[in-house]
Design a protein that fits this description.
Layout (H helix, E strand, L loop, with lengths): L3 E6 L5 H13 L3 E6 L14 H5 L3 H6 L3 H21 L5 E5 L2 H11 L8 E4 L8 H4 L5 E3 L10 H19 L10 E6 L4 H13 L3 E6 L6 H9 L5 E6 L1 H8 L12 H5 L3 E6 L3 E3 L8 H4 L3 E5 L2 E5 L2 H15 L7 E6 L16 H14 L5 E5 L6 H19 L1
Parallel strand pairs: 1-2, 1-3, 3-4, 4-5, 6-7, 6-8, 8-9, 9-13, 13-14
Antiparallel strand pairs: 10-12, 11-12
């Protein structure tokens, strides 16, 4: 039997285009399962999984809804369920969709239910705008068809043929497999890069494989946590936990409740560092409120202004650390704190040097974290070589105990 491709389309508006795409995919020797995520009309006979099957018990509510966003949310829930079931039943080797904003919203949400490595492709004009709401750090490929996929013409036919070829190539690349080496996840920011680079070089020299995640919210810590929970890693060195301060202080890179939990849940060796924790990530200068403008600021790039967390915000971050790390298996999680600064701009003489605020974090964490989670303070800056060596020594000790 051939590889199975799930094709999601709003068959009430894009049936002709979807069937053309189906034929192109089948021409490449693949089997296609057509799923109707349309919301206005009964599915045509050519679909394999109908609108009614996707909507389930919400069908009448979807058909009668006067609020499109509510109908989309209900249909999305049904599509996510269908996609999960197809994958679990080994009826999904790849997934593709075509549509506008509504269809892309539904299809991308369903794609998030699948593991990393399953080919995922969306043909949509949404690819030419802000793709973050759809991709969210996952391995979803968006293809811009240039014109709206509203009819078949010389351009849409070409783009749909191209999409079929791209998806076929993605499938031919094979299934993503876990590393034969022990894989280690590390979180990073530009301002913590010297520490991460030293750790990466030493770990790779020791035979480990290192995957580095840019700690910028849904495309950083969130996807790292998902891959941790999916069992890709033997250990985690969470050097850059800036997403936590964004969660408590209104920055732009919050991940939410799952952050700091993956390695704890999996019970694997976990080193946690308050790297860039004092750095609240904001947008451009013209996006700042008057209150934010009055705070201690650092212009990191034309698109990014950072705001220094105060003592109260650092205490709130410490409380989250304690809550999420507190249920760790004894000996599997350790917090290591660099006393001379958390990143390149948090050191004596630099713009974010505010030792009393960092001390508030340390004191609060020490008072709230249970004794089963070790806290080690090192008289170094995060980017000092000695600090990286301390992390490495503690991490390797944990890995050795794990292997015994």
């Amino acid at each position: 039997m051939g590889k199975k491709v799930v094709l999601c389309s709003t068959m009430d508006t894009k049936a002709d285009e979807a069937l053309f795409l189906k034929e192109e995919i089948e021409r490449n020797g693949l089997d296609v399962i057509v799923v109707d995520m349309g919301m206005s009309r009964k599915s045509p006979d050519c679909v394999d999984i109908s609108q009614a099957e996707v909507a389930g018990e919400n069908l009448e509510r979807i058909l009668s809804s006067k609020v499109r966003s509510e109908a989309i949310n209900m249909m999305t829930d049904g599509l996510k369920r269908v996609v999960r079931e197809l994958y679990e039943e080994k009826k999904l080797d790849a997934i593709i969709s075509l549509g506008g904003s509504g269809g892309t919203t539904m299809a991308s949400a369903a794609m998030h239910e699948l593991p990393i490595g399953i080919p995922k492709l969306i043909v949509t004009t949404m690819a030419s705008g802000n793709t973050l709401p759809y991709v969210q750090g996952e391995d979803i490929l968006l293809l811009n068809p240039v014109v709206d996929v509203q009819n078949l013409n010389f351009l849409t036919r070409y783009m749909l043929k191209e999409a079929a070829s791209i998806l076929t190539g993605m499938i031919e690349a094979g299934v993503l497999s876990k590393s034969e080496k022990k894989a280690i996840a590390i979180s990073c920011f530009g301002v913590t890069t010297p520490c991460v680079d030293r750790l990466t070089a030493r770990l790779e020299a020791l035979g480990y494989e290192v995957l580095i995640f840019h700690a910028r919210g849904v495309s950083g810590g969130k996807i790292m946590e998902k891959m941790i929970r999916s069992g890709y890693f033997s250990g985690v060195i969470d050097v850059t936990t800036t997403e936590i301060i964004d969660e408590v202080a209104g920055g732009i890179y919050p991940v939410g409740d799952e952050r700091l939990r993956g390695a704890v849940k999996m019970g694997i060796p976990y080193i946690v560092v308050p790297g860039a924790l004092e750095m609240i990530n904001l947008g451009t200068e013209d996006s700042l409120t008057e209150t934010q403008k009055a705070r201690m600021l650092y212009k990191h790039s034309p698109a990014s202004v950072k705001m220094r967390a105060d003592a109260n915000e650092m205490k709130k971050a410490a409380a989250l650390f304690a809550e999420r790390l507190g249920c760790s298996i004894p000996g599997r999680t350790e917090v290591i704190i660099p006393l001379k600064g958390f990143d390149n701009v948090d050191s004596e003489g630099k713009v974010f040097w505010l030792p009393e605020a960092d001390k508030a974090f340390i004191d609060e964490l020490s008072s709230k974290l249970p004794a089963t989670v070790a806290v080690t303070s090192v008289d170094c800056h995060i980017n000092d070589e000695a600090f990286a060596e301390t992390i490495l020594a503690r991490f390797l000790s944990m890995m050795e105990k794990e292997e015994k």
